[in-house]
Amino acid sequence: MTSAKETPSFNYTLSENKGALTVHFQGAMDASSAPPLIQELIPLIKKRLPSSLILDMAEVTYLDDFGALILLELKKILSPQKADFHLINTGDKVTEMLSLLQFDALGKARDLEKKHRSGAFIRLGERVLHGVSDLGYVFSFIGSVVLALLYTLTHPHKLRTEDTILYMEKTGVDALPIVALISFLLGLIMAFMSSAQLQQFGANIYVANLVGLAMVRELGPIMTAIIVAGRSGSAYAAEIGTMKISEEIDALYTMGFDPTKFLVVPKIIASVVTVPLLTLFSDLFAIAGGLIVGVFMLDLTANAYISQTIKSLSLFDVSWGFSKSAVFALLIAWIGCLRGFQVRGGAAGVGQATTSAVVSSIFLIILTDSLFSVILRYWG
Predict the structure, then answer these.
(1) What are the pLDDT digits (tens) for 271-328?
(2) What are phi and psi of 33, to 5 degrees?
């Protein structure tokens, strides 16, 4: 049995022999010939469901992705019945196009390969070796940073002043609005919560002591450092990490520049200078937040609240918080730059380094603050 269908530039004929259906294509299988094939040939094949389908490509003059799509649809029709599908007499051009599209692999369900999972001891050993390697790099980076800072202190004219001022602006001035807002709200919340208890004993005035001491000694430096870690520490890691994967760090080595002196020292100096000043602003805005609660909810005068705050604080308290914030700033800048230099791979590596810089910075801030608390306890 034979039938045929023609279009201006394409036609096909059908022949059937003992349940095997053969389709003879002639002409160009492209976008113009695809619609009649979709409308007529595919429904016809679905209706007959032959035990074997043979597509004769001997007289096909051109095949593009539209034509390959038709062949794929015909192949899919036979898949549920597990009928035979054959392409015969494919010329060089047709074979090249089908190979480019990986036609043989299309339509096949891919078996999910089960990932081999190594044993617990092997994974533990890998983590230990990886940790030891990272620890060695950390100590090496600490040494290079110390040497670079000593060199800069003995040769001040070698400091990149313009970049240092730019980092001061980004770390300090640009962070001031968010530090001020969060500190103000924190002081307001502390005063509001403590007033509910102190009012029972007629000790409203001591809200000023609580807010002042808590912010100046502990919360002011910690909250400021966490904000700076999220803003500037992550920015340092992303900047250096991007330079690392784009091979700009290698270019600095090639040109004879020390990347630690060139990139790390300005960031550390800028952070150590600006973060303590941010902490002082944080303390002031937190006290202002407590003042709002004291004046409008506790019937205290502004003069009485401020006087009580000054009485509760000493120069040592302010200096202690100022010193802690300087140490926190050093840790933030150092860990941000370290994670940047540890970037491997592409954009995903930069994202991981940025996240790691923030998490590591916050952990070191809390750990260092606990050490400061122990020192203060036994010192006092």
Answers:
(1) 999 999 999 999 999 999 999 988 888 888 899 999 999 998 989 989 999 999 999 9
(2) -90, -15
**Tokens 């549920």, residue located:** 80
For 104-159, the DSSP string reads GGTTPPPPPPPPP---HHHHHHHHHHHHHHHHHHHHHHHHHHHHHHHHHHH-GGGS
Reported for 249-253, long-range contacts at CB under 8 A and 24+ positions apart, including other chains, are: 249/341
| DSSP assignment string, 89-106 | S--HHHHHHHHHTTGGGT
In the chain the domains, ranked by start, together with CATH numbers, are 2-105 (3.30.750.24), 137-379 (no CATH)
Cβ contacts of 125 within 8 Å, gap of 6 or more? none
Residue 317 host element (H or E): helix 315-341
Q: Say what the pTM is.
A: 0.67
238: part of which helix (H) or strand (E)? helix 234-245
